[in-house]
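dumping this here so i dont lose it
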């Protein structure tokens, strides 16, 4: 029997994902097919016209089975594109999301030479900022050693390892001493405990719970960040945090109460509140 063509194999995968209720079965199947074939996604259409080897079919069908169980594509292929760069991801870190690029854009709108990333996870925020601002140095803190291992690997792959340090600890408790930074950034766990059941199966079943929720009202980490931000900011240094779309007014009030100035809220692509920022006097 001759080997099936890629178009036939892909069609079967799309049908499986559609039957499972995956939101975008065509996109996901194509990404998994490109990964299984070892080709760039941009060349997939051309490659699909060729017969597909048995090992490629086996790998693709295994990936489709995992995606049909709502495992994120990024976990299956081990990487996620963020701000134009590929980042390695695992179940130990939060999957980088397009909305977080709003924080990157806001951070890059001002000057900085030193950065502190609280709850760094995959390191995508810190590493991107260092890659975009050559000469800057930064520290990424996370309570999870497994996440820090991922972040260190990503720093090396992107080429900023010499300018990035990673420490394990709970938010501020990473031996900062009197250290101050021009920029403090964070995408902390902000989903309230009573909202967890409403998350999609892709998120709820596969991403680390401690990176998603504070097991309370979703605002606990913002309180802690606001309380000590001025202690670790240089004069006129900035702090930027990603938020859930309903949390803007509450987090902005925390920043103002903590003595930060020029507090503002930036929207995401859909016009929803996404980043709160403030500045030390």
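and the seq i came up w/
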């Amino acid at each position: 029997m001759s080997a099936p063509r890629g178009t036939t194999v892909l069609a079967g995968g799309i049908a499986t994902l559609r039957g499972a209720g995956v939101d975008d079965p065509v996109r996901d199947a194509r990404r998994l097919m490109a990964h299984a074939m070892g080709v760039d996604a941009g060349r997939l259409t051309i490659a699909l016209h060729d017969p597909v080897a048995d090992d490629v079919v086996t790998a693709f069908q295994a990936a489709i089975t995992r995606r049909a169980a709502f495992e994120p594509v990024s976990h299956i292929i081990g990487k996620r594109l963020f701000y134009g760069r590929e980042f390695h991801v695992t179940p130990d870190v939060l999957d980088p999301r397009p909305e977080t690029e709003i924080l990157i854009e806001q951070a890059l709108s001002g000057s900085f030479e030193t950065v502190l990333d609280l709850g760094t996870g995959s390191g995508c925020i810190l590493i991107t900022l260092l890659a975009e601002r050559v000469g800057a140095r930064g520290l990424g803190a996370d309570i999870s050693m497994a996440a820090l291992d991922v972040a260190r690997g990503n720093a090396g792959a992107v080429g900023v390892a010499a300018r990035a340090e990673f420490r394990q600890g709970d938010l501020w408790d990473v031996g900062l001493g009197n250290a101050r930074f021009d920029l403090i950034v964070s995408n902390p766990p902000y989903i309230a405990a009573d909202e967890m059941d409403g998350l999609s199966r892709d998120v709820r079943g596969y991403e680390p719970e401690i990176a998603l929720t504070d097991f309370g009202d979703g605002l606990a980490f913002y309180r802690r960040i606001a309380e000590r931000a001025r202690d670790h900011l240089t004069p006129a240094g900035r702090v930027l945090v990603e938020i859930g779309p309903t949390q803007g007014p509450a987090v902005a009030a925390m920043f103002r109460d903590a003595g930060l100035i020029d507090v503002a809220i930036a929207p995401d692509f859909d016009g929803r509140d996404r980043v709160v920022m403030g500045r030390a006097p």
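The beta strands are 79-82, 85-88, 114-118, 137-142, 164-168, 181-186, 233-242, 261-267, 273-279.
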